[in-house]
């Protein structure tokens, strides 16, 4: 059932669809077709957002990105998820805690968005690592959290005066990446910091 396990299907499976295909407005039933649609829509979102990076950023802006990206496919796009989710034995934030956690994410990380260009390299990498891990642990949306977290990281890099990041290294070492996220639960960010440092553009 999709990429992650959830507490209830909430009627989210597309009727007659392949495994992993969520109920969608276009009636797509093949995983390949859904993947193509989501990828094309994400490319359009990247182009629009990275060519018009704002001076300030709120969590409402992130919800708007999600809605712009997936709104033509899923009616819940841009809304905080109402189901609990996990990956194997690893549980993301409980749905009932999302509003509080997203408000905390905004106050702790997004409110500093406008001053990213003033940070030195170490401070910036530390900020990006903590922000990324926290966003993934919150997992605010029903689908697309990982991809949206990468967009957020790249928007933060552009705001800091750097070029967007290539995530190939992350894709090549998915197990290390996921262990890095898990380590962040206990406040250990050295592994995700390493991934970020090794992926920053020259």
Helix content: 40-55%
The Cα radius of gyration reads 17 Å
CATH architecture: Orthogonal Bundle
Mean pLDDT: 92
Order of helices and strands: EHHEEHHHHHH
Please tally the β strands and state the result: 3
> Quick one: biggest sheet?
3 strands, antiparallel
What count of structural domains?
Answer: 1
β-strand percent reads: under 5%
- Overall 3D geometry? globular
Number of helices: 8
The top-level CATH class is Mainly Alpha
Identify the CATH homologous superfamily.
Fido-like domain
Please mark out the parts with pLDDT under 50 across 5 or more consecutive residues, or reply none: 1-11
* Distance N to C terminus: 40 Å
Query: Would you give the CATH topology?
Result: Fic-like fold
Biggest sheet strand order reads: 1-2-3
The SS-based structural class is: mainly alpha
Account of the protein in words:
By secondary structure, this protein is mainly alpha-helical. It has a single domain (5-199), classed as Orthogonal Bundle (Fic-like fold), CATH 1.10.3290.10. It has 8 helices and 3 strands. The chain has a 3-stranded antiparallel beta sheet, with no helix packed on it.
């Amino acid at each position: 059932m999709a990429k992650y396990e959830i507490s209830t299907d909430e009627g989210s499976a597309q009727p007659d669809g392949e495994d992993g295909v969520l109920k969608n407005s276009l009636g797509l039933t093949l995983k390949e077709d859904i993947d193509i649609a989501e990828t094309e829509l994400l490319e359009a979102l990247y182009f629009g957002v990275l060519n018009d990076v704002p001076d300030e950023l709120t969590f409402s802006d992130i919800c708007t990105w999600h809605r712009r990206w997936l709104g033509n496919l899923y009616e819940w796009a841009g809304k905080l998820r109402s189901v609990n989710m996990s990956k194997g034995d690893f549980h993301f934030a409980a749905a009932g805690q999302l509003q509080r956690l997203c408000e905390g994410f905004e106050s702790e990380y997004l409110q500093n968005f406008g001053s990213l260009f003033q940070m030195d390299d170490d401070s910036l990498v530390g900020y990006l690592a903590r922000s990324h891990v926290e966003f993934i642990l919150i997992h605010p949306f029903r689908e697309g959290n990982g991809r949206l977290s990468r967009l957020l990281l790249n928007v933060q890099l552009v705001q800091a005066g750097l070029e967007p990041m290539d995530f190939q290294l992350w894709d090549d070492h998915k197990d290390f990446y996921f262990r890095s996220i898990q380590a962040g639960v206990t406040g250990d960010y050295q592994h995700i910091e390493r991934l970020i440092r090794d992926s920053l553009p020259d």
